[in-house]
Amino acid sequence: MNKKAFVTKEMIEKIVKDYPTPFHIYDEKGIRENAQAVKEAFAWNKGFKEYFAVKATPNPYLMQILKEYGCGCDCSSMTELMLSKAIGVKGSDIMFSSNETPAEEYAYAAKLGAIINLDDITHIDFLEGILGKLPETMSCRYNPGGVFTMSNGIMDNPGDAKYGFTTEQLFEGFRILKNKGVKNFGIHAFLASNTVTNEYYPILAKQLFEVAVRLKEETGADIRFINLSGGVGIPYQPGQTGNDIRAIGEGVKRVYEEVLVSAGMDDVAIYTEMGRFMMGPYGELVTKAIHEKHTHKEYIGVDACAVHLMRPAMYGAYHHITVLGKEDAPCSRKYDVVGSLCENNDKFAVDRMLPEIEKGDYLVIHDTGAHGFSMGYNYNGKLKSAELLLKENGEIQLIRRAETPKDYFATFDNLEIFKNLEKEFKKNTCQ
Ligand SMILES: *Cc1c(COP(=O)(O)O)cnc(C)c1O
Fold first, then answer.
1. Which of 190, 195, 375 has most ligand 1 atoms within 8 Å of CB, for mutation?
2. Gap between the terminal Cα atoms of the chain
3. What is the pTM assigned to this prediction?
């Protein structure tokens, strides 16, 4: 499949008059269509809920769109909980799936009535110590260890992952929780990341359903939900075929009937915590070519850097690039497309065949809608970009302004030196 940007050169030339590059832009129409498809794919399950993984794209405007489709929020920190509450998502519409959790975050999650998903057996006592009494509904994160294999060879390595209870601990944990008065139970597992195959959820679900049946038999726990978490991937590479959420929903339904329904557990809710699949393809980072450099290699220097999108630097991840206005031009040049950090891994593309790029060209870096802006940092004193929403009616809405030097220095505000910095903000028009 050819990858096409959802913005055009004409659109961007207009947008940059108000919002200079770089910025992330999100496609409302794409987000809505996909959220609707997810909802339909699991409509067979009465209790189904997608808890959007807030860490992927913690923007209240985007979270609010998903809320219209019945999505809750999967939170992993205090600020993500606060954000969810601020858009009116609370109670059991919040899943708190964190690890190495500070006491005050557990306390706040409990105050909001969130479902708490424990990462470790020792957290049972830790949580009880904070709350006095455990909530009636509790979930535990399961990590069976070993490797996770699928028929196309993709696998991940849960045995190497810091998360979750072992099988033994899960059974023991359920017994302890039950003795402490917990009434409703959930199981959660995240065993493989960015899976581009319709098989992942069904294989994971079967594994969890079988454990659920045994847990019910051996501990008497009333299992109310099974949380398949995230891990459903997107086709970052051209030529890759994306997941078919309908086929995934059907695959989960098949094993649900095979394992749970035949064990008399036909009222278990299915939960998901997708981040990447919900938002990834519907965000793009728009940046401008501002330099070209011909040394041992051919470089195009752009006005975005790893601060705006860390995945290529961090994981060597592939993000497709479209040169706007040159969509049909031959990819005749081999470039490294690089940002301005003093780090040689600050490269959006290495040895990438692209059309000939001239200074002033706009480049679209694809699939930045999840784990894009949110992973950003401030190395080299670089400021985070704005986030824009391309609305269904074609209008552009600013959903987060770009950082200014004042934001960057804000945490010095109780120090004497801040006065000098403030003078600079006043003098400096770029504030
Ligand atoms: C990161 C994360 C997710 C979302 O993962 P995606 O790969 O974006 O779907 C869901 N649940 C938990 C606990 C996570 O840590």
1. 190
2. 43
3. 0.97
